Amino acid sequence: MTAKPVNLTEALQSFTEVYSPRIVARMNDYDVRVAHTRGEHVWHTHADTDEFFLVLDGRFDIAIREADGHEHTVVLHPGDTYVVPRGTEHKPSSPGGSILMFEPTGTLTTGDAVAGEIPAHVDSTAGHDLV
Amino acid sequence: MTAKPVNLTEALQSFTEVYSPRIVARMNDYDVRVAHTRGEHVWHTHADTDEFFLVLDGRFDIAIREADGHEHTVVLHPGDTYVVPRGTEHKPSSPGGSILMFEPTGTLTTGDAVAGEIPAHVDSTAGHDLV
Predict the structure, then answer these.
(1) Which candidate, A57, A45, A43, places its Cα nearest to that of A98?
(2) From A8, which residue of chain B is nearest by alpha-carbon distance?
(3) Distance of CA B19 to the CA centre of its chain
(4) How far apart are the C-alpha atoms of B120 and B61, rounded to whole Å?
(5) What is the pLDDT of residue B115?
(6) B4 neighbourhood in chain A, CB within 8 Å
(7) What's phi and psi for A103, nearest 5 deg?
(8) What pairs with residue B129 in β-bridges?
(9) What element of type H or E holds B83?
C-alpha cells in the first residue's frame, strides 16, 4: 500500500543504476517499478506473466523473437506503452532513458529463462525498494 | 495482448469525455486505462482491489474517508503516483487533467459501493476500448 504519493521524476533521481528497477508502488500482488535504461539487456522470457512497459524518457527498444525464430524490434518513445506477452523471448536495449513497468511482485528483471550470461550492467532482481 | 505500441498522448487525443476511461493495454487480467479528469467524481469503494493512479497532466485530487470517518485529500500533480487501498472510500476530483490507472479487468469506475447518485458526467464503466 502507498501511504503517500510517489513522484516518478523524484524516484528516478534517487538512484543512477541502469536496469535496476525501483518499486514505486504496490497494488494487489503487483509492483509498479521504474528503471533507468542504457545499453543492451539480455534475451529472456517470463513464462507466466505479461510485462507492461511505459517509456518515460529517452528511447527504449524491445527485440522480440517469435516462436518461429523470426526477430523484430519494437521502438518506443516517451509516452509509448507496450505489452510483451508471457512466454515471448525478448531483449530490451536503449541509447538512454527511463521506463515504468507493471508486473507481478516477484517477477525477475531477467525472467525465468535467460539466453547466455547476464551482463554486469544488468541487475537480476525482483526490484528494490526506494530509499 | 498489445500487438503494437499505444502512445498515451495519442490515446488521450482520441476522445474527449471526462471520467470515461479508455483501455490502452491489457496485461494478464489487468487493464491499463487512461482518462480525462474534470469536476467531481463520486464517493465509492472497491471492496476487492487496490487502485493505482499516475497523473499524466493537470491536477488530480483524491478525497479519502478513513474507517473512522475522518476525511483528507491527496493532491496529485503530473508524475505523481498513488494507490488507493481496497475497501477505502474515496472521491476523485480535478480542475482538469488526465490520469493513467492500473486495475483488474472488469473494475468499475464507480466501484461496487457508491454513496449517492452517479453524476451525469461520470461514466460508470469497466473501461472502453480505444477506437
Answers:
(1) A57
(2) B79
(3) 7
(4) 20
(5) 77
(6) 74, 82
(7) -160, 160
(8) B23
(9) strand B80-84
Read off φ and ψ for residue B3, nearest 5 degrees: -80, -35
Contact flag A50-B32 (C-beta cutoff 8 Å):
no
Q: Give the three cell numbers for residue B114.
A: 457508491
Hey, is B28 helix, strand or coil? coil
**Residue A13 phi, psi dihedral angles, 5° rounding:** -75, -10
Cα-Cα-Cα-Cα dihedral of A119, A125, A130, B5, to 10°?
Answer: 80
B101 vs B123 pLDDT, higher one? B101
For residue B24, give how far its alpha carbon lies from the nearest alpha carbon of chain A (Å): 8
- Residue B129 DSSP SS3: strand
Gap between the Cα atoms of B99 and B116, Å rounded: 24
- Three-state helix/strand/coil letters over chain A: CCCCCEEHHHHHHCCCCECCCEEEEEECCEEEEEEEEEEECCCEECCCCCEEEEEEEEEEEEEEECCCCCEEEEEECCCEEEEECCCCEEEEEEEEEEEEEEEECCCCCCCCEECCCCCCCCCCCCCEECC
What's the pLDDT score for residue B53? 98
- Residues with Cβ within 8 Å of B69's Cβ and at least 6 positions away in sequence, in order, are none
User: Distance between CA atoms of B113 and B104, rounded to whole angstroms?
Assistant: 17
Sorting pLDDT into bands at 50, 70 and 90, what band is A2? very low
Report pLDDT digits (tens) over B54-102: 999 999 999 999 989 999 999 999 999 999 999 999 999 999 999 999 9
Cβ B7–A80 below 8 Å, yes or no?
Answer: yes
